[in-house]
Amino acid sequence: MKKSELLRIKSLSYAYDEKPAVSKLNLKLFYGEKLGIVGASGSGKSTLLKLIAARLQAFEGQILFEGVDIVETRNDRVPGHPDIALMSQDFELVPDLSIEENIARSGRHLSPTALKRYLGKVKRAFHLQSIKHQKVRDLSGGQKQRTALACALISQAQLLLLDEPFSQLDYQLKQDMLEFLRLESSGKSIIMVGHEPTDLMRFCDRIAVLDKGKLISVDDIQGIFHYPKNRKVAEMTGMVNVLDEKTRSQLNFKESIFRPSHVFLKNKGDWSLERIEYHAFGRLALMRFKETDIRLWAQLASDRSYKEGGTWSLEIKKP
């Protein structure tokens, strides 16, 4: 079944003081799709969201929303689009209102019963119960960020743009909010910008990679994780081992770009285990080939014990 397009971006360009921020960018989003965008600082991610939200006007190109150029619905007095909501890194909350009042203000379209139900859910999920009556001006950055996301999710907009929605949150709170977002956003179209690729891979259907204002890759999660287009894409989307052609040939590996989870430790061999590190997703081992400077990372199986100094053979396997 063919998917219907909600958004299509054609040859989009924008610059600040003649310095390109977005360059000849083409992208599309389908109804109900979740799209993640990654890229280094200054790659144009936030600028792209502002262009889509009609907060900025492109120098060249088009943004079609449901087939209509957003320039036709743009209001120069109040920049924005009525069916596109942006949660920016500035949060854009009313400082003299409380957390609860800000959320209620964004949910004016709901019935009193529905608004009360949403407030109860979001305050529990975002850990806002004890501070719900505090004025926004007195909140920390992380508390403001949670409030801004709660306001964004209650919006009637068909398209929700989230710019670094978890950047100021601790690990467990971020997991709770990601789960809430997954449950509450069913059927919604969302574009999310983030620096942490694992957050985007957990939530999104596809990932787009920006580099210096240009779109260099867009793919589904399996494709971009297992078979990234090139080294730049691989490094932007998670931890990765990269071998030059000479080293790949020397090791007799078929792959030159692969994740630690693609590396399997087998029987005794020419690789020594130099160091073990613990990460949120498990243990990683830094492996060294013989007495050379060739090193790579392998994810260790959870049901086996490993010691530094042990020797192994390695196998690279992708699905």
Radius of gyration computed on alpha carbons: 23 Å
What CATH first level of the largest domain would be assigned? Answer: Alpha Beta
Instruction: Give the strand order of the largest sheet, numbering strands 1, 2, ... along the chain.
Output: 6-7-8-3-9-10
Task: Tell me the total number of β-strands.
Answer: 18
Total domains, how many? 2
Which band does the percent of strand residues land in?
25-35%
Helix content: 25-40%
The outline comes out as globular
Low-confidence residue ranges: none
The CATH topology of the largest domain is Rossmann fold
Largest sheet: 6 strands, mixed
Say which CATH homologous superfamily of the largest domain is assigned: P-loop containing nucleotide triphosphate hydrolases
Q: Termini separation (Å)?
A: 26 Å
CATH architecture descriptor of the largest domain: 3-Layer(aba) Sandwich
Structural class: alpha+beta
Q: In oligomeric terms, what are we looking at?
A: single chain
Mean pLDDT across residues: 94
Q: Total number of helical segments?
A: 9
How do the strands and helices of this protein lay out in sequence?
Elements: E1 5-16, E2 19-30, E3 34-39, H1 45-52, E4 60-65, E5 68-69, E6 84-87, H2 99-106, H3 112-125, H4 141-153, E7 159-163, H5 171-184, E8 189-193, H6 197-203, E9 206-211, E10 214-220, H7 221-226, H8 231-236, E11 241-242, H9 245-251, E12 257-258, E13 263-265, E14 271-279, E15 282-289, E16 295-299, E17 311-312, E18 314-316
Parallel strand pairs: 3-8, 3-9, 6-7, 7-8
Antiparallel strand pairs: 1-2, 1-4, 4-5, 9-10, 11-12, 13-18, 14-15, 14-17, 15-16
Helix pairs in contact: 2-4
